[in-house]
Each structure stands twice: as structure tokens, then as C-alpha cells.
């Protein structure tokens, strides 16, 4: 049966997370022309508390405290890492560090992991993984004289565990995978993959960027080795917000960062002539931490922790089920195809649809006040972040999607994707 708007309203009325919406900017529900934002998996909304948190650092800690505020800042990367680990990632203290970008963190952990598996000359990734992951893997392999074993993954259904198993042998040093596929939202099985990789003596490095804050990660319980992720999507840390890295505690002593920065030095302020890595997670520190950015991340991460990752994941499943059901009823008759796993348990918090004119459809939706995302080659991606998106927002956005298809207004938009500079 086709879901009605009344059904969406009922879901909102019963939503235990409904009150969080008012704690974000741009959520004025009295505006009939309100923007329907379904791109929270690219950039999250700004929490209302963020400007004050950043201003406090600027106006008090920096403007008044000056260099004396370093006593508060010096351990911020570890302190915030512990908060993120406890509230969001399922990681105990001393295993998460905040700072740098996802790309830098990925490079750092991949090189360290490869070096910790001497005699192995293969790195594994999937052909459909996020570009920066594949680029970093290729660059590290070239620099170290290793081989990349790039395995196929279905654009819609994600990685087949049997395909991964066939690619694993005693030559593999590190496997790099995304927990949630950036294009389709397909969800990998952390426990099963980790077990398979460990069976051949290799390490697995997870990219959690499209998962953290929307689906459970449970890093410690899953036995994960290494992980990285961004904080500007479901964690709502803002554009360019610092990323995080995770290194399981028992692996830390055996891994050495290839970026020997002074924030990873054991006795940082001794200013000694030689680099000696710190004993714990701090050894993966590089340069001066992005203090202003971390202030924003702390606000967003605290909101996610308060909401609870299990409740967020449950809402995401129900919300994406609604997207799929409405897509079946309204979009499929117009030639649109579901390009994500149909079962909620097999996908993250976004849903993708395929259409030959996906770029034009994306632009037409933006013109109608709906913000989705376009992904090559022919996909419209919808990411209703569960922390602040309502079910009626999803219903209304899908109704506008249907209208754009029915009136063919998307055909008036340029067929070629413009280059953003």
C-alpha cells in the first residue's frame, strides 16, 4: 500500500528524536516553502549551539587567554577522540584521535599498517570505493613497490563477501573498505569482513565517513583494526571539519606513523633532535590540531551521542524504507530504478535511484526546493539525516520528485554536469 502523508505525520508524532530538529538551523517548519534537505550525508546541518562554541574559543580562549589557552588545547585531539569513541564509535578510551583530514588519516594508517606486515606486497580495495580511498591506496602501493588488488563491487548491492574472500591470501597486507558505500548506501558486515581478513593475517582499514553518526560501528566489539572517518556529514561538524582515526589499542605499539610530526613525539616540548613516537594513540598525531574546527565537532558529536546511535539507526531504517516505498509507487513507473539494497538491514542511511537523466533530475529537484545529491554515472542520492529530518519532509520531497517526473520539467535543464570551480 502506498504510504500516505498522514502515515508520515504519525511516524513524526511517535518519533523519540523529534525534539532534536529544533536544535538545528534552517528547520523552520512554519514555512510552506521550506527547503527539503536530503543531503545530510554530504554536509550536515549546523547545530544552533555551534556558533557560540566557536565564538567561545575565539573570544575567550584565543582573544583573552592567548598562548595560555594551550593548556586547554594541547590534549583536545585525544579528549575529543575519547568522547567520539564512547558516544558514537563504540571504542574505549585511548583509541581515537581527532585531527587532519580523512585523506591524511587514511594515508597515515595505511602506510603504518603496510609496514607492520613485512613481506606482504598487496593492498586490497574495491573498484567502487570513494575516490580518495582508491587514490591513496594506489599512491601508497606505488611508493612502496606494492600491488593493488582492486576487486569488483556491485554499484547497487555493494561488496559480495565471496568476492572479497577470493581476493585474500598471504600476500595481502591491508584491506581498505568503506562500511557504507558512498554511492548506493550498501552496508558491509564489519564482523564477517574483519574475520575473513584476519584469517589470512592481514589488517582491515575501515572508512566510516558515510556511516558514523547514522549506523552503529561498534569498533571494539567487532574486532576492527583501523578506521578513519569525517565529521561533517552525520556528525554535523561543518565544512572542512577535522576527521578522526581509530587504532585498536593492542596494535598501537607495533604501528609507526609515516608523518613524524611534533604532536606525535613522546616528549613534545623537549624539542629533541630525534623523533621518538608517543606510547599511545597520540603517536598518530601530526601537527598543531585544528582547535576552532574541533570546537564545532564537539557540539555535533555530543548531539549524536545524546540521541543515541541505536535510535538514530532505527529511525534511518524506517526513513529509508519510506523512501523506497514511495520510490516504488511514484518513481519506478517513470523509469527510475532503485540503486540501493532493498532490505533496510543491508543499507546505511541513504537511498539512491538510477535514471539516464539523473543529473537533470537533480537540478530540477533543487529548483523545486529539494536538495539531493548527484553521483556518477546516473544516480540521484537521497540522504535524510535521522537527527533532524522529519518523515513528512521525506514524503514531501518524494512528492516533488514525482511531480518533476510527471511534468517532465527536468528536461529543460542542461544535460551535462557543470564543472564546479
Describe the structure.
Catalyzes the cleavage of L-kynurenine (L-Kyn) and L-3-hydroxykynurenine (L-3OHKyn) into anthranilic acid (AA) and 3-hydroxyanthranilic acid (3-OHAA), respectively. The chain starts with a helix and ends in a 14-residue tail after the last helix. It is an alpha/beta fold. The protein folds into two domains: 5-47 and 308-412, Aspartate Aminotransferase, domain 1, CATH 3.90.1150.10; 51-306, Type I PLP-dependent aspartate aminotransferase-like (Major domain) (Aspartate Aminotransferase, domain 2, 3-Layer(aba) Sandwich), CATH 3.40.640. The chain is globular. The chain contains 13 helices and 13 strands. The model has no long low-confidence stretch (mean pLDDT 94).
Number-wise, the strands total 13
Question: What sort of overall outline do the alpha carbons produce when their principal axes are compared?
Answer: globular
Which structural category do the helix and sheet elements fall into?
alpha/beta
Count of alpha/pi helices? 13
